[in-house]
What does this fold into?
Amino acid sequence: MSEKPQQEEQEKPQSRRNSFAVIEFTPEVLDRCLKQVEFYFSEFNFPYDRFLRTTAEKNDGWVPISTIATFNRMKKYRPVDKVIEALRSSEILEVSADGENVKRRVPLDLTAARNARIEQNQRTLAVMNFPHEDVEASQIPELQENLEAFFKKLGEINQVRLRRDHRNKKFNGTVLVEFKTIPECEAFLKSYSNDDESNEILSYEGKKLSVLTKKQFDLQREASKSKNFSGRSRSFNGHKKKNLPKFPKNKKKNGKEESKEDSSAIADDDEEHKE
It folds into this structure.
């Protein structure tokens, strides 16, 4: 009787937490690896990447390479020693003497970078309604590459950012596409905007897509938040009943108790859902 549990324990598969598939680091692969990390530290990403920026600020600009290696798009580059080898060839980045950390050779002017955000938004479109219901977290890196290839056929772009649901962190079917120039962005919008029925239909895997400016997307998102969390509608979508704010009761009037909304509870709840 005592042998069976022991046998089952021996047959239990080993953890794959630290396992990886070794890839051949050809010159092309080394170059892609380097460009990916340089992008993380670029003016297009670093000022807006809170995690990366705060990590660097705490360490005089340095970020552990082991941390960067955990990013989804970097997990395929193993062993990490090859990543370090690629980074040592960078003209933008500097690797520490012990090979443990990396930082920009010339720090970014974050104030100027933040001021450039307005211009960046003018070059950015939101493309919505991508198939996403069956997309697992493990499929995100491959999907990212596929969507980048999809948009590169349609215009000159800097980056494609997949939006995620703040509750489950899964891809929500919307991507933000940043074009290299405002004219490129405007040309794409003119060709595929849903405002003009004569425009060409933009689709992906047979599904019609919707195209909005970044400003339209932000306004739509704020309107959705207001609808879901305003005191007037009190819908609180996605919340269990036990998590709803409790409103203090007023004195009885005409034999009935009236409730008064606690606006601070609603504001706190809305703040919790900011991305």
User: Anything to note?
Assistant: The chain has two domains: 27-112, 116-222. The longest helix spans residues 214-229. The chain is about 40% helix and 15% strand.
